[in-house]
Amino acid sequence: MTERTNNINFSENLREIEKIYNSIENELLGLGVVAVMASLCSISLFVKDGKKRGCNLLLIIPKGGGKKEVLEPLTKKNKNIIIPFSKGTETGIVTKLSKEYFKHHVWVVEDLISTVATLGKNGLNDFCAFHNEFLEKGHYEKATGFGEHKVEGKIVCLYGIALEEFRKHEKKWKNLTFMDRFIPFHFTYTNEEDDSIGKRIFDGNIKIPEIKLPNIKRERKIEWDNELTSEALNLSRLLKKGRDSSFMARASIDIKKLCMASALINKRDSVVRDDLLLVKSLIPYMINPVCFSSLTFKIIQFVRNSRDELISEDIIEYFSERGYKEKTIEYHLKQIRSQNLINHEERSREKGGIYYVYYSDLSQTKEEDSE
């Protein structure tokens, strides 16, 4: 694939997001969108809204797909808030960890299954019980043979899991309500992206970049734009659907907080429409277990950056020149249309009944999205 595939130009309001995306995408083609989502969730820890919960991420990638490669860059440069969490004991999480672990930190687990396996025979139940309570209320108590143990604070969790393992355990976790506390993020690669990364690794021509998040030491209040509420609630319904949950409240909090985290990363104290549009671009990965690749995100941004209406051929030509096969682009366009991620309309343009699909920026979430 050609190198110019990698970069995306974002709006002026999203320059810090642009830096994060392009720094990863230039080295690890396809993983830029995951880096953006992980960064938003991490910074949600510092959004001040009177609640004890941030946005917790469950990154679902096919086995060997790069969970470590996208989570490690965050850990390296942000050790003041991000902790690679891998500790587990039969007596539970709260009995062995320093209380500092629970005070405004981001816990990173590259392989959730391996971590849970170290917790002993009751590990999964204990693990879920802790997260269900602490992520919601900011405190947790556990009685053991060694007495009462209590922790308080606020954390955000970035956990990775292989798609194959997720499918195996998904039903049990839903029954334990663990999934209600996390935003599922289904991700995969196109064959072209997979080949590109494989070739660069083979050639020894790849360097794992580092992501430096803003050095924020205390929670900050971010102003919400009430004109965005209706649209944000439509996105919340989609996230609720993606979780297969009956609770709208948690989904609406997460969508709002992701928008606020975008504002905070981009050094603003109020949410603007570009923040909501960024979150809207990430929604496909939260609602579709088919697992979208980064090409979905790129197409949405390309249409958004275009000042004119586009037809399918325009999009196919643009991304074909950047190394994607026509079949791959057509598949992604079909998925985008089926999920109403971009406005599209069939119209006759020439004599003879030839129809073209016209695309334009998704300025409003369509009503059918909210059903």
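The above is record 1. Record 2 follows with the same two-line structure.
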Amino acid sequence: MYWWDGVRWVPLIRPQQYAKPQVYAPPPPPYGQPLLYRAPDPSPGLRKTLLVVLVLADVIVGAFAALGTFVNMEYAGWLGPYDGPPGDISDTLFALYFQLVGAVLGVATVAVATRSGTWARVVTIVSGVLVSTSCVGAVLGIPIIVTAVRGSMTKPATTA
């Protein structure tokens, strides 16, 4: 095809445009070789969110642990005479479970607050998994795990 430039008919495609070098994509990595993965940079605002969720989880788990402990103390007669049916093992397990989760959450909260580095991330993820094993804790455990993975756990670099 041609077009009129006002003086002569000119081809739409000039001859020098015909021979463009072909650019091919690089070959894929060999079979079985894993692709390199680089974790995304930590998000600085997630640390504050993580602290809020950890403190909220501490309060809720602490309330359940205190409730379970008071029930067991009442069954044992430590809070006064008890005339009701005896407690069973599930009451004790309830109290022990929430006391364990509360202890791990407390350590995770202190670790994140003091920006203790890699072990703070590990303890926080473990506490998120432990909290997620209860029905109420699943609502708090998932945000704990997600923000622990992406949150900043180290002290900011000082400029000298």
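The longest helix spans residues 46-76.
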